[in-house]
Amino acid sequence: MIIDIHAHCGKWFFPTFCEEAETVSKICDRFDIGRAVFSSSKAITYDMEAGNRDTAVFVEKDERFFGHLYLNPSDPRGSEREIRKYMARDRFVGVKLHPSYSGKSADSESTLRLLSQLPEGTPVLVHTWGESGVREVSRLAREAVSLRVIMGHMGGTDRNGWMAGIAAAAERENLFLEPCGSLLHRDRIAIAVEKAGADKLLFGTDMTLIDPSFSLGQILGASITEDAKRRILETNALKLFDF
Amino acid sequence: MSTTPASEEESFILDCYTSFGSRPKDGAGLSCSDLASELGQRGVDAAVSLSFQGVFYDYEEGNTETLVEAKRSDGFIVPAGTIDPRRFYGSGGDICYRDFATLRLFPKTQGWPIDYAPFHKILQKAASSYTPIMIEAVGPGKPTLIARAIGSAEVPVILTSVNYSVLSEVLVLLSEHENLYVVNDMLNTPDGIELICDEVGPERLLFGSNYPITYFEGPKISIEKAEIPASHRRKILGGNARRIMGIK
């Protein structure tokens, strides 16, 4: 079984037609994805409350589906209401932040204040791009020691970005890597395993924005042990998300 | 055109988008012999490739190296040529087009615009020798400019690095230009392969991994997992590239 901790439900601005739960279920069948954690594209790009509502409905459509609650630190009151509304529900297993859409950096005071309200051990997936993004998320992990902070995209596709992400994850116990993306340097997974350890990586696809083939391909094609691949694709997420 | 019998062609995997040599910026380079070995281990029957030397340093030296390595590879490496329009002006430094299966051009990597006189000159020469062009199509608007630059020339033009950000644009252009094709190296929407097959047919898609810059497995798995008939898959994995580039 594969566990995808970085998935999305909803529409995108380009021609892809995978918003129906049935279609996403078929994608999961195709790739042997046994659990997937979704955040709403509508929540990220347009309307947090409507999008989280969509996620709540979507995750009920398939027993393999779980939700990331999207929080917008630019709307702290609304975000606090969303935490109260959803975080106690079984199918919401983590939180998603996207600093470039919310306009608030991962280490802003409003972000830190908001996340202080989350239950201990909550996984927080943060879109993390470039060296500056890595610095901000590292500070978040340092300040919010009770949370499990996951760098979505591992710092991005530029070598300096993902190398910084790997170094940061190697330093902090509560900081993890999720390495999906578009143009993936063919050594990045082997380097991440060597420097940060296989236990620090979690598998994510970015579906339905990106085809799971590309993220799966970088794990299967990486020069790492079969045991490391299994940890990344499944075991680490089972532990981190308490599945 | 290929003279190989259809039954043999069906199982042939041709990776049409690979490279070899040094990459000083990101360390993703690989020697030609290692490239051939690694692709062979992954079930590839042949690979269209060129030396990075032609991209980053000097296209004439790079092309010479590509031809030498292709000859040494005993047919596994099919040579792709390149010209750097920042150096080329039409009179000197031309290449022997018939030596190469395709001419690869790198506007994004080399930083030149599509609306660029030397590029138009290269297109004319490639068209007159019917040498297929492979060109990076990175970012909204670039595929449209490339299609305009082609104009009515009947030479095949194969777009690489096509991702979700240009997909609608490329679908429109594919429907308008029968000589336009797409490599799947970055065709990364979950239903992108199905969408192109449905809209314009599987004949317009070519398998290319962009190895060793990125992982070989992603683009390959995306074709294996796509919900398309086996006949479509065979065309994409090798048949189309062989037909378009005249690879036997």
Fold topology:
The complex is a heterodimer of chains A (243) and B (248).
Chain A: E1 2-9, H1 21-31, E2 33-40, H2 41-45, H3 48-58, E3 65-70, H4 76-86, E4 92-97, H5 99-102, H6 109-115, E5 123-129, H7 130-143, E6 148-155, H8 159-171, E7 175-178, H9 188-196, H10 212-220, H11 226-240
Parallel strand pairs in A: 1-2, 2-3, 3-4, 4-5, 5-6, 6-7
Chain B: H1 6-9, E1 14-20, H2 32-41, E2 46-51, H3 53-56, H4 59-72, E3 77-82, E4 102-105, H5 107-110, H6 117-128, E5 133-136, H7 142-150, E6 157-160, H8 167-176, E7 180-183, H9 192-200, E8 205-206, H10 217-225, H11 230-245
Parallel strand pairs in B: 1-2, 2-3, 3-4, 4-5, 5-6, 6-7, 7-8
Helix pairs in contact in B: 8-9
What does this structure look like?
The complex is a heterodimer of chains A (243) and B (248). With 243 residues, chain A is an alpha/beta fold. In chain A, 45% of the residues lie in helices and 19% in strands. Chain A has helices spanning 21-31, 41-45, 48-58, 76-86, 99-102, 109-115, 130-143, 159-171, 188-196, 212-220, 226-240; strands spanning 2-9, 33-40, 65-70, 92-97, 123-129, 148-155, 175-178. Chain A has a seven-stranded parallel sheet with strand order 1-2-3-4-5-6-7, with helices on both faces. In chain A, helix 3 packs parallel to helix 4, helix 7 (130-143) runs parallel beside helix 8 (159-171) and helix 8 (159-171) runs parallel beside helix 9. The longest helix of chain A has 15 residues, at 226-240. The radius of gyration of chain A is 16 Å and the shape is globular. The model of chain A has no long low-confidence stretch (mean pLDDT 97). Chain B is globular and about 50 Å long. Chain B has eleven helices and eight strands. The model of chain B is unreliable at 1-9 (pLDDT under 50). Chain B has helices at 6-9, 32-41, 53-56, 59-72, 107-110, 117-128, 142-150, 167-176, 192-200, 217-225, 230-245, and strands at residues 14-20, 46-51, 77-82, 102-105, 133-136, 157-160, 180-183, 205-206. By secondary structure, chain B is of the alpha/beta class. Among the domains of chain B are: 11-85 and 98-107; 158-206 and 214-242, no CATH class. Chain A binds chain B through residues 12, 14-18, 27, 30-31, 159, 182-187, 207-218, 220-222, and chain B through 25-28, 163-165, 167-168, 171, 186, 188-192, 195, 211-222, 225, 227.
